[in-house]
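Q: Entry one of two.
A:
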Amino acid sequence: MKLFVIVLVAVAVVVTNSLPVEVSTRKTYKGYKIHRLSLDSQKQLDYLVNLNEFLMENDMNGEIAFLTETALLAPDFRKPVSVLVSPGQEVEFLKRTEEQAIQHVVADADVAKSLEAERYMSPETKRTVKNGGMTWDAYHRYQTIERYLQHLANTYPELVQLTTLGKSYEGRYLYLLKLGKARADGKTKPAVWMDAQIHAREWIAAATVTHMVNKMVTEYGTNSTSTRMLDQIDWYVLPVINVDGYEFTHTVDRWWRKTRRVNPFNVAIGADPNRNYDHMWMHQGATQQANTDVYAGAYPFSEIENVYLTDAVLERKAQIKTLLTFHSAAEVWLLPWGYDSSVPDDFEELRQMGLKATQALEKLYGIRYGVGSSTQLLGAAAGATDDWGKAKGMIKYAVTVELRDQGYLFNLPPEQIIPSGLETFEAINVVAEVVYKEYGATLD
């Protein structure tokens, strides 16, 4: 990486994951572009992995930032690599990638303009939000989501219960919804757990989950599918896990991924909460380098948000039969294990559910999802939610759903929120059918 030293050391770098940032305006990314690289050899992959490590080690990822995790690319060179490049580094970056015969296209020629467009709200939407409502034609701040959850619980008390799990590191409340119609015969229904937004920048995750929640609740009694889903299944929904990081992406840095906890042993802020669970922690696909996006934390469960999630799941362990954790953006249905290439003994049953669910999803808009283990499809990522759910939560169907990308990666335009919600609703409907057929209802 010596080739980059002469160019990069002289640059005044804006570091997104160093000391706490107190600013009144968000980072605009003026002049930045996103380049999408296509790889066809191990040599090219090794070059990018080494470059990414060099940038991280030298706190230069504010100038060239890999939006695609290079650590997850080894199994499949067909997956493109998206790289955010500052105007001061573009010429040198392209020169070096061309020397490696790496093909590239400009995926976004004006990142600042795209980010402004992503934040746009129509006057009607602004009025709705001001009056305490929520829409799915825009991405919303956490306060708006909070008010919406409270509105659901107040408006539909026979279908919705709202519980506070605790406060985040920065003092925001985490909320858990329980959706479902109580059975008249006193039987306990099987449950499906859904969570989203463990990675702060993956905005479509929370938007998709809240859209599906809204559809189930508001269409109960008029839509036969929504009615059946709430009659047969209880749904536990944690719409935003990483509340501090999510808010930070709205106020300071759109591409922030981690939590916002001040690390006791390092000046870098936050950890990757999806590497912070205690099952096979730090086995593969994570690091102890605190200024990276896959920093696993100083120890398992160092992040309080992970503690809240696992406590909530374990309290309902006997009832929860499926765990769905929503991410973006790779268009895959990921199954355990994520810590190595092995799979659980019942992997084929998990895969069959995934195939049925993604086939139902595909029928709506034609988006085809891959189905397989996390390691097989994206590479090792030890310490993740689905692995913990399967191994420690003893939940049979534990799944990470990577939502639609459509070439936009994390910046899916707001007009795609509703399509994402509708197609994913078809998938979770299949999940509900499989779970109810397998487990039915049991007497208390």
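Q: Entry two of two.
A:
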Amino acid sequence: HTTIINILHLSLSRHTVSFMASLRLLRGLGTAAASCPMPARAANVRALAPCARLFSSATTQSEKPAQPHTTIINFDDSRVAFKHHTTLELARALFILKLCSINFVASNSERIVHILKKYVGKTATAALFQILHAHFAGGKAFDDLQPTLDRLGVAGIGAILDYAAEADIGDSAEPATTGSDEEHACDANVAIFLESIRAAASRPHGFAAIKITALIPPAELIEVAKIVRGLDHRAALSATAGSPLAGAVQRCLARVDQIAAAAQRGGVRLLVDAEQTYFQPAIDWIVRVAQVKYNAAGVSIPTVFNTYQCYLRDAESRVINDLDFCERAGVRFAAKLVRGAYLYQERERALALGYPDPIQPTIEDTHRNYNRCVDLVLPHIQAGASVMIASHNEDSIARTIVTMSQLKIAAGGGVYFGQLLGMADHVTYPLAAHGFAVYKYVPYGPVYEVVAYLSRRVQENSSITGGAPIRKARAMLAAELARRLNPLAFG
């Protein structure tokens, strides 16, 4: 552990410079950056646009009927992407992307978090992650969120509020807790989620997000997953009722029901995050129980959204099965489609325990799987389904927009777009400018409590995992900084 901490310290030391020094350096880059070509990914949208009659309702802040128009979205315009960001924020963002490009940091981020928690302590760990928290999170507490929400609202962007504290199994770095302590923590998390829902209800088309691992101790959730795997929701309820976990299950279901009821009363859509595969069968079952009650065919909007991680090999079959169940049961299907957030952990665990890797073999396979899942869901929108296209991928978003046009789905008419705070602004802001219902996922919580979330953002922004889109983001940030600092070079 000493070696890893030393290497981390050396990496941080080599790449940590003051923001003002970075800005001075960037002043000399203006002329070069002005002639630096941006990747031409927006050409995919422009090529598809002539066949697309797109329907746009005003932003997430408006209820006005959509009007048809032809839209060409340019994802390469740094002025639109970063219009609402200060120069210092752009410098911080570029620094963080550069930090994430250190392969050692990205590939060992979860191990680093574990070691820091165990050997360095809570205060020092939080201090090291402070800059990441400032970039990727909306604040340390609910009361800190308003400036972020206001700035997003000015741009026509909604917010998905999420208290990002989470738990996992086998984290020996955490102090031992009793079952009573864990139950009290779960009850406290309910109050926090209800607070997010009340805030979301104050805005049109509000969303809030929850994690099931915040509502039941993880060690119990993984045992529930073993019991319910392969069972339908009624058989799973019977199986858990006869197990030693019956009490824990009922408490969790009651917490989810309390949260979902509050969301429905407030007209808020509730996104239940996907988590690791060893939890997911239990999460899917808990979500289905809630969907049967709160997404019934007669409701005005479906309240409970399940999340499908399309980097998993079984994602497509799960979407097909759940669409079929909803049709048979008279339930309105509601989903968030993501690529996935636990790549390193899933593969390491599969290798260590000797079971097949659940992840798609390549990133291209993940892209194809994601697009297939989108294509499965969109034809059901007119019948009452809803979907959150939670993606930073320009090609997937372009395909979705064209399919929406072909199916005559209005912008905001059951299809929503979402990106993470601190990432993919060059996607979010142009979508908002063209009237699509687009949201930023705004996590919050004390720094130490959300380090797991922050470490996954490091992985996603690495050169290994992020690839060309991350290189494009760095190039756009650098170009915009250079433009601001040396405007004469850009005319």
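A: Comment on entry two: Residues 179-201 form the longest helix (23 residues). Residues 3-70, 171-176 have pLDDT under 50 and may be disordered.
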